[in-house]
Write a structure and sequence with these properties.
The protein is mainly α. Helices cover 87% and strands 0% of the residues.
């Protein structure tokens, strides 16, 4: 029994060349698609593209709705914060007025 001998560059190149020629022959033997098949594949591609466009539009509308809801929530939170601040300032003003009144009474 002989020992294994690794193929050299020329042998590998020849094997590669024959494999390429064989696959090219198989490709050439394949029949060309008919007009009906081409039209069917174009229609399927067009249908697929319109469905993708509809999904993209739906996602964009959903994102816009979420952004609008977030903006509205932010506005509500800001107005609530302003009301709290104004309520605090009213209480502070009342306390200052009461302090002035007490000081005036203390002077008399």
């Amino acid at each position: 029994m002989t020992a294994y001998r690794a193929p050299d560059f020329n042998e590998r190149a020849a094997l590669s060349r024959t494999a390429k020629l064989k696959s090219l022959a198989l490709l050439r033997a394949k029949p060309a698609p008919s007009e009906a098949e081409l039209a069917e594949s174009k229609a399927a591609a067009l249908k697929r593209e319109t469905a993708q466009a509809a999904r993209r539009a739906q996602r964009a509308a959903e994102k816009q709705a979420v952004c609008d809801a977030r903006a509205q929530a932010a506005e509500i939170a800001a107005s609530a914060a302003e009301e709290i601040v104004s309520a605090k300032s009213d209480a502070e003003r009342k306390a200052e007025r009461d302090a002035r009144y007490a000081a005036r009474k203390a002077r008399k």
